[in-house]
Specification:
heterodimer, A: 2 domains, 10 helices, elongated, B: about 325 residues, MetI-like fold, about 75% helix, globular
Amino acid sequence: MAGIVVENVTKSFGDTKVLRGVSLSVADGEFVSLVGPSGCGKTTLMRIIAGLETVTSGEVSISARQVTRLRAADRDVAMVFQNYALYPHLTVRQNMAVPLVMRRLTTAERLPFAGKVLPSARAKLAQIRTDVTHAAELLAIDGLMERKPAQLSGGQRQRVALGRAIVRKPSAFLMDEPLSNLDAALRVTTRTEIVALHRRVGASTVYVTHDQSEAMTMSDRIAVMMQGELLQVATPEEIYANPVDLRVARFIGSPAINQISANVTSSGVVEVQGQPVGLVSPARGPVVLTIRPEDLTLGSQGLAGTVEHVEFLGESVLLHARLGGGELVIARVAPSDRAHLGIGRPVALALRLDRAMLFATSNERLACAPTDDVAAAPVNREAVNG
Amino acid sequence: MADLALTSGTAMPREGVAARQTRGFGTILVAWMLMLPAIVTYVLMILLPLVVVLALAFTDYEFGAPGFRFIGLDNFAEMLGDRTFGASIRNTLVYSLFVVPLSIGIALLLAVLIEAGARGRAFFRAVFFLPVVSLTVAMATAWQYLLHPSIGPLNAVLRDLGLGTPNWLGASEWVLVSLGFIGVWENVGFNLVLFLAGLTAIPRDLYAAAEIDGVRSGWSKFWLVTWPMLGPTLLFVLIITMTRAIRVFDTVQTLTQGGPNNASEVLLRTIYQEAFHYFRFGYSAAVTLVFLAIVLALMLVQTRLIDRRVHYG
């Protein structure tokens, strides 16, 4: 069964096109991250799914129900806001009860003192109390129930916001950068907790973030968005290893993927600085060769460069080297290699050819393959190693 | 602090501490110098007159009299039997009870409507703020014409409708209502601007969260989000409007001079009359003290009772 389906949605604010025909399908119970730089339209897309924003064109359905023209209150979605959006005058318990009170009680039953007078209201309020307590226990905030939001830490407020979202068991969960107001350490633990919570609750989730590492660690699938378009929707592994667009490749991964300007000769040989690197491609002309830092190894042959900076990370070392063409590349090498990585020293960086990718200068992915052909093979550069 | 002093004591040589002390003295001196104009003004313009009023309230001083003597609480005793003072207290109370709730309620309603509207925000704000920036005395003349019993447009309309044509400013049963209405008209614009500022400060996300939580009607959203979030603004508006209502003077003085037969006599006018008409400075000072006591008491009650309930810290 389909969880959330977005079909061909466009959104314009005046003359500004924020979304240019976005289609996305989130399976039932799936966790999909919407990731992209700020201003790419990801929050707008989420607000459209929530019903807080109308579409210019296109359709949205949730749990196989057309909701495009339904207002947010009728869509059965829950949302966690970046700044939590808790009601400051209500206690934690009251905050979490709001969605249940609004949905289960009639207007008459919501009147003050109705809980004391109307038996129906009393029964419902008792049930709400049980449900709220249950959700609070799940999030380990049951000790904070009588506090006001101002008396809570950022992490606790975050949990209350999550609690308010899960308490009514919605068919879809929307989270708008819920971790961005937390400090770095808390962010890492909370993202694990959100994933665990998602497994227990099992509702389809759309998670908006600009932090690619959050998207990578939490999601079943990642949707990368730029300039109002979805560039690629795939599993974290696929997005990382096999991006279809140079902008995706650049956005995902830390440190960022290395980009080296290259040229494909008329015979299909990929050359960097006029030297073949061991790849062939059906494309022709100027291209961008990309390689992840961990796929560059120190060797006796490969791309020649000089060491510019060395970052020791513990389990690995990030080597920043300036290539002959002036480009800066980063290689992730073993700490044991650190000894002979003095600043200014020449190095040769070998590409793991099966991991190298080619992109057109207009960002599309191009085919390429390693070759054994001698004419395309990298030459041994004595100068570098001498 | 103790551990701070310990570490700095070991790290810093003695003369460093001494230098810091002189610098501290210099800073204090500069601070006092900078505050001096404000302090002088405050003492001369507020503190000193207040002390004089306080002292005068217990004397029988009359302007131009060669001397005065302390008469203890006699001025206050006189107030109890003073029919003009009694009327002015009662009228000020009625006027305030009329003006405060109405001007706050109408301003809040208008502010919510203007805020919800897609356009015309600046236009409506300007229109309703106009009475605040216009000269009350000049406006009072306009009101005098509008409310005039025989040539006024209001009564012309009432006449055409076949209704009664009261003497709005001249009949004792209508005069407070008329003045109260003008007071509401004066205060709504001011309160409206304050409420609009308060409304703008409410995070939009709270309304979005309410919508997601299943709050459908604007009415419910108002009570779940707007009303509690406006709490601090409301308290401020309440205090401001109350003080403005209690010290009503210029409309009364221009339009009715407290008449007819003391039916629109108010506290500030009584103070003014006693001091600058009858030159009874001592008695006037005593009434001023009562006025100050009422204002202070109201402030205290409001801040003590409500302040705790509108700031959710």
